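User: quick one, fold this
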Amino acid sequence: MFEALFPSISSILSLAGIGLVFGLILSIAKIKLMVEKDPKIDQVLSVLPGANCGACGMPGCSAYATRIVEEHYEISLCPVGGADSIAKIASIMGLEPVVGVSPMTARVHCQGGHAEALKRFKYSGPRSCSAAQNVMGGFKVCEFGCLGLGDCTRVCPFDAIHMGDKGLPVVVIDKCTGCNNCVDVCPRDIITLAPIDTEVRVMCLNREKAPVMKKGCSVGCIGCRLCEKNCPEDAIHVTDFCAVIDYDKCTNCYTCVEVCPVPVINPVERSKKFQKKKEEPESLQAENKAEI
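Assistant:
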C-alpha cells in the first residue's frame, strides 16, 4: 500500500520543492528590484485634507501627493486644503511659498425658480438634470436656467449645496471648498467658482436678447449695461446680452448691485432696498435719515 502511495507523495514533494524555489526567486527579485518610496510622498499626503474629491484632477489625495513629489506637479490644485495646505506642501518640497491664492467657492447663476421661470412641457422622467436636459433640451423655456433636479447636491462630498424652496440650488459658503464637483456635473453650466471673499455675482447666464429672455423668465439679465457704465473698476461687462464680472478687478463696491434695475446681481436684498430708497419722495428720505 505504501508503494502505491509513493508516486503521489513524490509528486507532491516535487511540486512543493518547485514552489519553494520559485518563491525564493520571487522574494529575492522583489528585494533587488524594489523601488524605495520617497518619504516626502507620505509627508505631502499627511497635509492634504484626505477628501479624495478629485478637484485636483487626480483620483485621490494619494495620487496627487505622488505626482507632486515625483513629477514636481503644481502644488496649489487642492481647493479643499486651501492656503494652509499649500504652504505646508511648499515647505516640504523646499519651494517658495505660494502667495495670493484665494479660496474658491461655488456660485449659482440663476434665480429663475418655480414662480419666475416658465416651463415648455411637463417632465416626468428620472429626477436628474442631465436626464432632463437630454429630453428636447430641457423642460424650461429659458435654455440657460437651472433645471432644479439636484444633480449638484448629490455629488457634493461636503454637504455644501442643497435645493432651496424656489427649486434652485443654495450654496452653504462655510462648507463649500470649491472642489468643482457641482460645476462639472451641471449640464447647463450655471455653477461657477469665484473667490470666497467676493459676494457680488450675476445670477443669470442668459444669452438671448431681453424680449426673448422675458418670454421664459421674469428675473433674467436684460443687458441694459447700467452696471458696465457705472462700475468704477471696469470690472463688469455685458457680453452676449448678459453681465459678466471680472473678479480680478472687482472690489466689492456694490455699485453694479445698486444700479441693476431687475435686480439680477447679488446681494439682491441690498439692491431692492436701494431701488426702494430711490423711489421714495425726498421728504421721506430726509425723515429716514433723521431717524437714523
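User: anything notable?
Assistant: Residues 102-197 form a domain with the Alpha-Beta Plaits fold (CATH 3.30.70.20).
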